[in-house]
Amino acid sequence: MEEQIKNIQTESISKISQCKDEKELNDLKVKYLGKKGELTSVLRGMGKLSPEERPHIGSLVNQVRDELENLISEKEKEFTRKELEEKLKKENIDVTEPSKKTSLGSLHPITQIINEVEDIFLGMGYKIADGPEVEKAIYNFDKLNTPPDHPARDLQDTFYVTDDIVLRSQTSPVQARVMEEQKPPIKIICPGAVYRSDSIDATHSPVFHQVEGLVVDKNIAMSDLKGTLEMFAKKCLGENTKIRFRPHHFPFTEPSAEADVSCFVCGGKGCKVCKGEGWIELLGCGMVHPKVLQNCGIDPEIYSGFAFGFGVERIAMAKFGIDDMRLLFENDVRFLKQF
Ligand code: DAH
Questions:
Q1: Do 135 and 78 have their domain in common?
Q2: Which atom of ligand 1 is least distant from the CA of 286?
Q3: Is 285 in the pocket of ligand 1 (CB under 6 A)?
Q4: Are 117 and 202 in a shared domain?
Q5: Which of 62, 90, 118 is the last residue before a domain boundary?
Q6: What order do you get walking across the sheet with 243-250 strand by strand?
Q7: What angle do CA 304, 213, 135 make, to 5 degrees?
Q8: What is the SS3 assignment for 130?
Q9: Domains: count for the chain
Q10: Structural domain of residue 65, as residue ranges?
């Protein structure tokens, strides 16, 4: 029996020392020390021994059991330590590792121009007005003295939602809405998106942005319009910017004009931006037609006004040196982040 115990001792010690993980260790614990374990069954067989042999064998078994228990507990500690070490290694934070970059966005060039234009006009005492992009044809056309047979009302030019509702083709309908709601003095600008049935190319898009301006009061004259636009052009495009009027026709203004600004790149000598002209076409404007005032409930005998409207894309393209309008709508961040 002594030999059997010694065999168990040698075998178990070698197996426990070589064991690789907690599960294996547990199995060995059960195998040798468990209720049905090998050492326990030796103890059970003690009854068969002579009384002289019993104490010796008993103490040998106890000694081996103690030894195994110690060994197992050492092993257990070793595994816990290893596990902790591995965990620490895994959770180790490398403070020298470069951090992940979160990229900050920026305002779209169109938004930047609109903000700038708003600032300039707010500084001149204007208020900012707003109107619907899905607009009644009566506001987009009729009240603005644009009769049903006017070419601008053609299906080819304007997006119709129904016979009498359109996607506004200009910001001018906001003029009519404001005049109906407010009494003079009126001094507003209205920035916003407009829609036209144009195919996309480098200078056209079915959606673009305009800023409309309207002033109505007693004794408003063409000179007020010119002075206002001159001030705007200098603030927006540079102190040396000059402005010139060319006669034009708009149904809602009389007289009407188109305003050009001296090229702010070459100063008027002629360059790529102004296509050698020295001047860049900026906007449409004029004195509000008496019929328009009347259509909107304002007495043209007492009041007069001026109005203007310009494309935001055109200014953004000129100011930022962008030669293709499509870039402003494609929203490729590689392009946008330059501004
Ligand atoms: N609505 C015109 C356009 O889209 C621009 C314009 C011209 C607006 C003259 C005005 C104006 O208010 O007086 O071409």
A1: no
A2: 13
A3: yes
A4: yes
A5: 90
A6: 127-128, 186-195, 207-217, 304-311, 279-288, 253-262, 243-250
A7: 105
A8: coil
A9: 2
A10: 2-90
Find out whether the peptide bond into 185 is cis, omega within 30 degrees of 0. yes
Q: What is the whole-number distance in angstroms between the Cα of residue 281 and the centre of ligand 1? A: 13
Maximum C-alpha span of the chain: 138
Extract the tokens encoding 139.
Answer: 């506001």
Atom of ligand 1 nearest to the CA of 171: 1
Ligand 1, closest atom to CA 212?
A: 12
136 plus 272 within the same structural domain: yes
* Model pTM score: 0.72
Give per-residue pLDDT as tens, 57-74. Answer: 888 888 888 888 898 888
Q: Pull the structure tokens for residue 39.
A: 């050492």
At 243, list the tokens: 């402005």
Please say whether the beta carbons of 118 and 188 come within 8 A. Answer: no
Helix ranges, 141-198 (H): 173-181
Per-run averaged pLDDT (10 residues), the chain, 339 residues: 84 87 87 84 80 83 86 89 89 86 89 98 98 98 94 87 96 98 97 95 94 98 97 94 96 97 89 89 96 98 98 92 92 91
- Give me the residue label for tokens 């102004």: 274
Distance in Å, CA 273 to ligand 1 centroid: 23
Distance of alpha carbon 109 from its chain centroid, rounded? 14
Helices (H), 103-169: 109-123, 137-140
Exposed (0-12), middle (13-18) or buried (19+): which is 66, by Cβ within 10 Å?
Answer: exposed
| Residue to mutate, 308, 312, 315, ligand 1, most ligand atoms under 8 Å from C-beta | 308
Ligand 1 pocket test, candidate residues 139, 197, 212, 256, most atoms within 8 A of CB: 212
Please name the residue that has the structure tokens 């002594």: 2
- Contact 305 CB / ligand 1 (< 6 Å): no
Q: CA-based angle 207:309:270, to the nearest 5?
A: 90
